[in-house]
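Re: the request from the purification team.
They wanted to know what the chain is likely to look like in 3D before they choose a buffer screen. I agreed to run a prediction and write the result into the notebook, where they can find it.
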Amino acid sequence: MKKVIVTKHLRKEGLSILGDKVKKAIVNDSIPDTFVDEWKDANGIIIWGGKVGKNDIENAPNLEVIATVGVGYDNVDVDAATKHGIPVCISAGANARAVAEITIGLLLAVDRRIVEEHAATRAGTALRFGGHPELSFELYEKTMGLIGLGNIGKLVGKMAEAFGMKVIGYDPYVTRDDIEKLGWTYYENCDDVLKNADVVSIHVPKLPSTTNFITMRELKLMKNTAVILNTARGGIINENDLADALNNDIIAGAALDVFENEPPSPDSKLLHAKNLVCAPHNGAQTLEAMINMNTMCTNAVLAVLNGEKWAYVANPEVYNHPKWKK
């Protein structure tokens, strides 16, 4: 019987799919070095809040599949996995609606200063009709600029349309025709999205090419009345540059559910910046999303262990490996 490591206890919906089809080892740990005895003969691993590096992969000679509870895979050495013919399965689309909804929630929070007004009301310092309307704007007829037009980005665009927003976007992996069929404007250059949007929303994976993708240069391209949102991964926006842009009124506000270091240090310059609303990377933490992610990743593991090519992988080129040509 093949053996699957689970780094954190899955919901019953996921565990029931594994059932007795595999030998389960629930280690409640995120570092393979600390469960070497279980790891050395593992055939699969389901990662939830853990990391799998090159050395880990090389120290698990029987490893056939890696699955993440979520769509992100920056916690896996994908190149090493591909070299060894190991698919890195992701839960594509499983948490898309949850993340899209929190994106819109964060937009409303930063745009309408909801967090500040909440704190002032509870402290007894708020004045009825005493807000600052010049610091807020209605979404109607404003422009939502999407950087990344995958499942989440497209859902955010559709939700933005419900507010009467115009939608524009950039994604080098999506065709102009696909976006124009939705009635949106496609830009081949990210700079044009930044210049024209009232709201910029980030929906790209964390890769070497997207690390520090948004720096002071890009922030200065934005309108000084615009806000930027990031519910994708920390490090895509340079945090020091974002703090400076907020404190110097280069942009009007920002809302984040992700940070370069999580949790961020209380001394973080960004945490103390003006007009920032933030959350602790909980965008996908809804009941529905957790069930979807748990069931999708367990189905992925069983499929690959049965010799099937799972479609939703971070490394589709893995199927060119000699191991898959047999």
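For the purification team: The longest strand covers residues 143-147.
Please add any questions underneath this entry.
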